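Dear colleague,

Following up on Tuesday's group meeting, I ran the structure prediction for the two-component complex that the binding team flagged. I've pasted the input sequences exactly as they went in, so you can double-check that nothing got truncated or mislabelled along the way. The structure tokens for the whole assembly follow below. Feel free to forward this to whoever is handling the docking comparison.

Inputs:
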Amino acid sequence: MSQDIEVKLIGLSKTFGEVRALNNFSLEMKKGEMVALLGPSGCGKTTALRALAGLQALDSGKIFIHDEDITDLPTSKRNMGMVFQSYSLFPHMSALENVEYGLKMRFRKVSSTDREKRSKELLDLVDLASHMDHYPHQLSGGQQQRIALARALAISPNVLLLDEPLSALDARVRSQLRDEIRRIQLEVGITTLFVTHDQEEALGVADRVGVMKKGVLEQIAAPAELYDRPATSFVAEFVGLTNPIEGEVRNGRIGILGQDIEVLPGSVTLGKAIALIRPESISLSKDSLPTAQVVSVSFLGSMLRVVLKLDGGSLITSQLPSSENLNYQVGEKVSVRIVPAPVFAKAL
Amino acid sequence: MGQIMKNITRVSIWRWTIIAFVGAYLLIPVFAMLEFSTRGAPGERSTEAWLAIPTFPKLLSSISTSLQLAFIVIFLVVFVLVPTMIWVHLRLPNLRRYMELVCLLPLTIPAIVIVVGIAPTYRALYQVFGSSPLTLSFVYFVLILPYSYRSISASLLSIDSHTLSEASRSLGASTIRMISGVIVPNIKVGIMSGAVISIALVLGEFTISNLLNFETMQVVINLLGKRDAATSVAVSLAALVFAFILLAILPTANKTRSSKLKTKRKVEAATK
């Protein structure tokens, strides 16, 4: 096994009754890397994380950390730091005692002074040293999750596991904490598995994002690659928005709206297909022959969303810089052009 | 404004009327017991009945027996019922309904039926444990199950015990340390309520111990009542006060820890 690989999950399978939560799921994580698992509810992403933590027994498969097989190791001996979706701080302990807890459990010979010193360092890292005597009920949701992060990091875990840690928070706190998690992860240099159903979260913080569907890892890649070069129609449609436009594939290209666009590997290779076009890949102009009519224009701050009716009758959405706000009016005829970047074409 | 004030006054009057009524309902019998047990010569108060308590040889030993029984039952609640309930709650949730059913069953069976049912079992118990009245703790443990189960179960359901246990285990705690260090402190109020109810039940239980011919506090008070009513009432009142004290201690348990932490920080700040 490569020295670079810290975590290796091989062929994990788990069935709950009729549902296959994990279906021969495999994943490798490099040292210091943050991998996000993204997918809809029930796709198996949390099961994979819980299997790595030892909280979920598997039907089959192997888990390695530093080349050591930990498949049958109990949770308490795996040395994984975990932050849960629901607030998991121990209610009867102060913030400092919560952070100290793991150190007490794992390193019994460490003196209480050293333990307290280390815990205060971690609270400092999450910028909550001034709240060390507060009990969980005296802290906000965001503060509780930051303390939970400090508690998970205190034991110097092999891997940090984040199970939708931001989903219970409001949008503003979520965005702040997301950036803070990434800052701390890079500062500590810890290998991290981040499970989420929020694509913005996943694409925003992870080095690589794995998209899951029905227990299978559909694609794992860097965020930009995942967005620009989806390997399956599910990935293309789940990550970001797409406009389905019918065309014909021939010689690795699809003909749509009078243009010939290259198709991505994994697409339909011949015949009629549906091209999945990103809204920002659709540009508008008034110079050439009109091919669509503006149905609605929505101003979204940094961008403009324009819904268009093609001559064939189908509706598509274009995303433009908001500086073009006054250029297009409802009912106006416009010419639609697609940015000539490779697109995914799925079967009809 | 005037209407609002009128409404507030009306609500306040109702509230105080209810409180006064309930207070009188509960306290008048207690004062009556105190009055009766301290009644001396006409127009005088006397502590004779209270001072006579230690002079009845069986009374002190029966109080001791009842207290020992209460502590054994609490021990069984804390070390048998609580871990079993936590285990079932966390690992065998499908069994929870059945456990609840079994634990609530004693509530539906009259004490006399229980005695008839367990008498043969007690004959076998005598052979193993002798005829010590402390063997009553087994049947008392069964009797208090509905009350202890309810209060502990309510506490368990009020916390996210699954996440807390998983967090604890991921931080390196063994199952025993997870239960004792994380779950139990968070259901402490439920356990203590269960324990207090258990003590009250054990100290007040009469039917089973009397029918099985064991001399517990209530059995002896009953005998005493036939000979010396005032002392019998004094002992009953003392038992009641003991239960009140336990209930009063209950809410202070959490505050003590919190104030200890504040004191620790104050000391640290002062020494810096």
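The longest helix of chain A spans residues 171-188.

Cheers,
M.
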